[in-house]
Design goal:
Helix content: 25-40%
Number of domains: 2
GO molecular function, one term: pyridoxal phosphate binding
CATH topology of the largest domain: Aspartate Aminotransferase, domain 2
Number of strands: 15
Keywords: Aminotransferase, Pyridoxal phosphate, Transferase
Shape: globular
Pfam family, one: Aminotran_1_2
Family: Belongs to the class-I pyridoxal-phosphate-dependent aminotransferase family.
Enzyme class: transferase
Strand order of the largest sheet: 2-10-9-8-7-3-4
CATH superfamily of the largest domain: Type I PLP-dependent aspartate aminotransferase-like (Major domain)
């Protein structure tokens, strides 16, 4: 049986354990193509590593900065997979990439400092800034020729600007940044003495047509004011283990990150079992990610082609992620109104655009996750097509 066959998905388990808008939270019979979380069980090496650890019966405190072998495995994988030269001593394991974003914001921002947040982008950029007492300045991130147009970015920098949020690859667009894009962002940060919150949680899920380029490709010396987060939920499916890391190339900045993380007081930190799983991810399971990518590319191409044959909607073909950003503006409906209709009428759950998740710039769009089997994806798209036909008839719209 292939790793990503439909028969490998355990719906009975997902309906009990998969929360955050997924199988365990939707009414019976609803297909959730929602939160960015795979429907497949994790690689067997992760399961085996965790079981080997558990069987000894000890769950003692861990080193405050994390297991050395975990930090080493992250450092090695960052170099081998992305060409990022990061000293393992400057990597802090933490309880999720999301928590890492909050720590970075707390480290850099003071009351009233401004952070430039792209609109649309994942809501955690906005929320981490606000939690630190910062002010969010939204930069309208529009696509031009398939990439984010950064030509107006400098106009959003003020004397109060302290940091720029970089989501690379970008969620929800699924776009990677070109070398000239990264150079432009870095040059602005150098010119105005700004920090960069660099979210690379999607950097493993990149399709072959467009390679991933990290901000670190500009050289480690230029990245001393970059603070990065990475996680294991998107690539390896261990979201419930709350495993992530923060890293930088500057020792002083790393010390400040550690201080703000509360790991030294043991009020913060990452669980031992999560580090065991994370080490297995980094050192043994990239073969699984590569196979997953092959499966995801087939799903992506099928879904984009299907969606673009449906009336009144348009789907972008992402460079990265297992998410589709779909334009529904032709219906003249709020995103949430559209998603509520699909859930009620055809039993399909997808994520709505709008302020809550991605910013006001995503109003009139929906996001669809395709990290599932071809069969489940096909049925979900069948339901979407049926729902669109129903909407067109009800509203008496022209196809």
């Amino acid at each position: 049986m292939a790793l990503f066959d439909n028969s490998n998905i355990k719906l009975d388990v997902l309906k009990k354990r998969a929360f955050n808008y997924r199988w365990a939270e939707v009414p019976d019979g609803v297909i959730p193509l929602t939160a960015a979380d795979p429907d497949y069980p994790v690689a067997p090496e992760i399961q085996e590593a965790m079981m080997d650890y558990v069987k000894d019966g000890y769950f003692s405190y861990t080193p405050k900065l994390g297991y050395p072998e975990f930090r080493d495995s992250i450092s090695k994988a960052l170099m081998e997979r992305k060409g990022e030269e990061i000293d393992s001593n400057l990597i802090l394991p933490i309880d999720s990439a999301a928590r890492g974003m909050y720590v970075i914001a707390q480290t850099v921002l003071r009351q009233g400092d401004e952070m430039i947040v792209f609109d649309p982008v994942d809501y955690l950029f906005r929320e981490s800034c606000l939690a630190a007492g910062g002010k969010v300045v939204l930069f309208p991130a529009k696509l031009k020729d398939g990439y984010i147009d950064l030509s107006e970015l400098e106009n959003y920098i003020t004397p109060k600007t302290r940091m720029i949020g970089l989501c690379n690859p970008h969620n929800p667009y699924g776009v990677v940044y070109r070398p000239e894009d990264l150079e432009h962002i870095m040059s602005l940060c150098e010119k105005y003495n700004l920090y960069i919150m660099n979210d690379e949680i999607w950097s493993d899920i990149v399709f072959p047509e467009e390679p991933f380029r990290s901000i670190y490709s500009l050289g480690s010396k230029r990245c001393r004011r970059v603070m990065s987060v990475f996680g294991f939920s998107k690539s390896f499916g261990i979201a419930g283990l709350r495993a992530g890391c923060v890293y930088t190339t500057d020792e002083k900045l790393f010390e400040e990150i550690v201080e703000n993380s509360d790991v030294m007081s043991t009020a913060g930190g990452i669980a031992s079992i999560s580090q065991i799983a994370g080490t297995a991810c980094m050192s043994k399971c990239y073969y699984w990610v590569d196979a997953f990518l092959e499966h995801l590319k087939k799903n992506r191409d099928y879904a984009v082609d299907r969606l673009n044959q449906m009336p009144m909607i348009k789907a972008y073909r992402p460079h990265a992620t297992y998410l589709l950003y779909v334009d529904i503006r032709a219906f003249g409906m709020k995103s949430e109104e559209f998603t509520d209709y699909m859930k009620e009428k055809v039993k399909l759950a997808v994520v709505s655009g709008g302020e809550k998740f991605f910013g006001s710039g995503s109003e009139g769009y929906i996001r669809i996750c395709f990290a599932t089997s071809h069969e489940i994806l096909e049925e979900g798209l069948n339901r979407l097509e049926k729902g669109i036909d129903m909407l067109i008839r009800e509203k008496n719209l022209e196809k």
